[in-house]
Here is the input.
Amino acid sequence: MTLKGLVAAAFAALVLAIAPPASAQQFPVTVPHLYGDTVIQAPPRRIVTLGLNDQDFVYALGLAPVGVTEWWGKQPYATWPWAEDERTALKAEPAVGPRELNIEWVLAQNPDLIVAIFTDISEENYRKLSQIAPVVLQPKEFPLWGTPWQEQLRQIDRATSGGTAKAEDIIASLEAKTAAVATRHPEFAGKSATMAAFREGQIALWSADLPTSRFLTSLGFTFPAELDALADDAGWVYLSLEQARMIDLDVVIWPEGKRAEIEALPVYQGLRLAREGRSVWPDPDGPLAAALWFQTPLSIDYVVDQFAPMLAAALDGDPDTTAQ
Here is the structure.
């Protein structure tokens, strides 16, 4: 069954089966996270999400949030195209809050669960939010912004249902789909790749511990150890232009755009990336680039088939090749 099929089945089961009593048997549940443990007494009915991508996981599990946050994009209900079918099926019309934490806005949504995994919540703000409703943060064993999508899904499933086979079915299906794409593209195996951005005169890379790099690894690519060794505590690698040759990899993806500015750099023009057309330039304002940022079950399902031909075209070393 496809991921979309699994999500549809999960929604049907939620609506048609006697879900509340069965779920209630799992509660109370304890969810460990960055700042300790959160106890959730009953299945939540009013979920507010604060992270960049947390709402996607709620939708994937067949649940409708009452409040979500808009980080960028100005999408209806802060829902990108890959999650629109799920939102529509659930008849969800969540309130949309600002990217910067606004505790008064959260309070106004009257939540009984606050999900804040893919974001940066201080311990002080965690305590304030906990006075409104139980708060679930990222598992403590991962760095900030570094929770694998599989563990983010399990964390939210645990908080909303007590932990079920639903999350594991979604994980198994999507991992199988990603593995199938990797099998269709054996040329990816062992090739070096990264996502990069040009910011304030420096080149910023996503380290091996961040979800975007894990996505590339799942397709068979590698992230060079010498670059990973330069990562800061937040998982970012910053290179000066004098170090630009360190990104002369087999493929580099630039999801934030600035193509003309980057291609005009003399140091870039001297790289194999430029000579052999090994850079990938998704529209920075479009859903493909956003899906690479989101790294959720729904966004990966949306992007993986579309993105693989772009990677293959860049990898062949012919600047005239376009994705098929």
About this structure: Residues 183 and 219 are 8 Å apart (CA to CA). The chain has 15 helices and twelve strands. Residues 9-22 have pLDDT under 50 and may be disordered.
